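To: structure desk
From: M.T.
Subject: fold request, one chain
Message: Could you run this one when you get a chance? Sequence is below, nothing fancy, just the single chain.
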Amino acid sequence: MHCVDCEVARVSRVDRDRYLVRSGDAEVQAEATGKLLFGIASAEDLPCVGDWVLVRYYNDGALAIIHEVFPRRTILRRKSAGKNIEFQSIASNVDVAFIMQSCDANFNLRRMERYLVIAREGRLEPVILLSKCDLVDAGKREEMLAGIRRAHIEAKVIPFSNTTGVGLDEVRRMLHKGKTYCLLGSSGVGKTTLLNHLIGAETFETASVRERDGRGRHITARRQLVVLDSGAIVIDTPGMRELGMMGAEAGIAESFPEISGIAEKCRFSDCTHTSESGCAVLAALERGELSEERYQSYLKLMKESAFHEMSYVERRRKDKQFGRMINKALKLVKKK
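Reply: Done. Structure tokens follow.
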């Protein structure tokens, strides 16, 4: 679009319909134009953290109005929490997803698979960060690493501790100037504490974790982008209790490479790997060449993704029909 006196900025924080945008070292409050808000096709097209946007500044640079969101190079998104069948954008234009789990009750391979799927679906490089490695001995830590390897999770894994500092230098070496990184994980795994370490100051508030179940409280209430002294950019996100799949078949296939490879040998190209004759996946499962847990996780994610995608497409179809009906009614009113 043509926008006189507009400048390019980046969304650094989102709080409902209020935004912070960053240009250089300056951050200012921003709002989206009504034209932008009412012209989007769905909520996922609203500005999100990491978006590059076209803004016009007012009040001597104290306020910005967002006129346009530039196309996203990468996108982290999930199904909205609850019964709402809609995509929710988490962060955009991210290079690396730091998927964090802690070496306590939080460690869960099935949840890790879900985070890997949304990262790969959004074209991000996933890196696994295992926090609180000081809570377990070397044997238990190796057991966790072996479990990740057995699950065919093809991503770099870095165990570290916010308490002792072990592994923090390796995390820092992952950060490169101009690149954007996103911290993903459940509440209480130490995302914000890690961010404070990377900043070198207690910039953001943290909270202790409940001992009985290892769960943390939501201290990070919104997504926020931070530029480190090194020039690397880190986005912190709130802990997510739900990580629903929707329209993520490609990401699932990429996150389960051993199953995708076997599936190429199936008799039918549209094989569901559940009951078909000539299914190479079922044959591999029967021979013990494929993990039952991985197979069940794969099926669950594929079914969930397909079901929500079908519901989403159907809702969008009804929305379009309703929109056409309204437009037709308005035209009839104008004729009278």
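Reply (cont.): The radius of gyration is 22 Å. Let me know if you need anything else for the meeting.
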